[in-house]
Specification:
Layout (H helix, E strand, L loop, with lengths): L1 E11 L5 E10 L12 E6 L4 E4 L4 E4 L4 E5 L16
Antiparallel strand pairs: 1-2, 1-6, 2-3, 3-4, 4-5, 5-6
Amino acid sequence: MAAVLVGQFHARDAEKRVYLVHEFQDSTPSADGLTGSVPVTTYKLAIGDRVKKLDDNQFLLIQSDVTITREPDTYVGQLPEPIAAS
């Protein structure tokens, strides 16, 4: 299974602290090695703490049980494709 960083955004908690959230897509290669399964999106803070998506703009910091809200104008979106090693 490989995790690829596909985006990042800022989110704030109720006390207005800002968190940088990284968005990853994980995929597992199929048995034939040709096509993978449907990618699974996961989220982590830049410092590594796990994040659970509650809805489009609400996330839960799993370790501290704090709800954070995505800042609307901070989504980076699709990052450039990684360069394959030859």
